[in-house]
Design goal:
Length: 327
């Protein structure tokens, strides 16, 4: 496993980050613990969660994924692991039960620390923008947490380029800790969300980019085929997978398969390899319901695509990389 700096910071994280959104949603608690063990044994030191995971699953109060991680961490060396969590979503009733107000952040961070059983969250991320709260209120509250030692670094998620740039400016203007990473929805079938604007901000400002849903929620494994949604898959539970089930989507799967054959890599590994080959990407956040699924993603560690492979994937997805330092 290779380790990379999170943006401009000195923090080293594994080039694959483990996502935990499925814990006690589509993955049982026992499988979640097995996935954590296997990830750690394979050299993954970077774990992404959120206070709201997985509040949407029936019977879950929220905070469940953090609790599972907290349980697991008890028997692991804390100094070998980088924990990232998020704040913003609704965690309790009432007008301040969600958002990025000072009050919500200050209460939410204590609850996350308690569930995780740690004294400092290594990377504390705002999950989504909150346009009802002034940016400087949010950034001052987060800066206080860094100064208090409750949080190591700050990150944002689902921020468009202009808002991330504005947040960096506000932090700079007031001498506050700034967002060192951005977590967008980014994969081969969702390039415009990042390219070129967010990519350019990351490259010019030294912000680490940690893409979520790098396998398009499972579509880029190749298990979805025209007119066929596998039983028990995420796509069977929601219609959202159908947005990828187009002629272009299936042509991409064929292209990834053909390129992968030459290297002995699978469709999923090639899709992760594409992200690992982009200069502004720190670590794709992979999701896995089982150790077997994780195993396939682990096979992408160390994979770097060559210029011809990158160009072919540009052709198949209508993208270009004029914004990338490597051209
Ligand atoms: N910041 C945000 O707003 C945000 C939003 C979403 C996610 N995230 C983060 O990103 C992480 C990853 O997101 P994601 O789960 O959408 O990522 P993903 O890697 O695109 O999708 C993971 C899903 O794909 C399927 N899969 C994975 N490997 C497979 C394999 N080898 N064979 C067959 N199917 C396989 C599984 O779903 P099925 O088996 O159920 O089909 C698995 O749950 C989350 O855990 C979370 O930490 C953040």
């Amino acid at each position: 496993m290779d380790y990379r700096k999170l943006g401009r910071t000195g923090l080293k994280v594994s080039e694959l980050c483990l996502g935990t959104m499925t814990f006690r949603w589509t993955s049982s608690e026992a499988d979640s613990l097995r996935v954590l063990d296997r990830a750690f044994d394979a050299g993954i030191n970077f774990i992404d969660t959120a206070d709201v995971y997985s509040r949407w699953a029936e019977g879950n109060p929220g905070g469940v994924a953090e609790e599972i991680i907290g349980k697991w961490l008890k028997s692991k060396p804390r100094d070998q692991i980088v924990i990232a969590t998020k704040v913003r979503g609704r965690m309790w009733n009432g007008p301040n039960g969600e958002g990025l107000s000072r009050q919500h952040i200050m209460l939410a961070v204590e609850a996350s620390l308690r569930r995780l059983g740690i004294e400092c969250i290594d990377l504390y991320q705002v999950h989504h923008p909150d346009d009802s709260t002034p940016l400087d209120e949010t950034l001052r509250a987060l800066d206080d947490l860094v100064r208090q030692g409750k949080v190591g670094y700050l990150g944002a998620s689902n921020y468009p380029a202009w808002l991330l740039m504005k947040a960096l400016w506000v932090s700079d203007k007031h001498g506050l800790a700034r967002f060192e990473s951005i977590q967008p929805h980014y994969h081969l079938l969702n390039r415009p969300e990042v390219e070129p604007e967010l990519a350019a901000v990351c490259l010019t400002e030294g912000v680490g980019l940690i893409p979520y849903s790098p396998l398009a929620g499972g579509f880029l494994t190749g298990k979805y085929r025209p007119g066929r949604i596998p039983e028990g898959s995420r796509g069977a539970g929601s219609l959202r997978m159908e947005r990828y089930m187009t002629e272009a989507g299936f042509a991409l799967l064929d292209g990834l398969e053909a390129l992968g054959k030459e290297r002995g890599k699978t469709i999923a590994q090639m899709a992760l390899g594409w992200l690992l080959s982009l200069s502004m990407v720190t670590a794709p956040i992979v999701g896995a319901n089982t150790v077997e699924q994780l195993e396939e993603s682990l096979g992408a560690a160390g994979l770097r695509l060559n210029a011809e492979e990158m160009a072919r994937l540009d052709e198949l997805t209508g993208g270009n990389r004029t914004w990338d330092k490597r051209g």
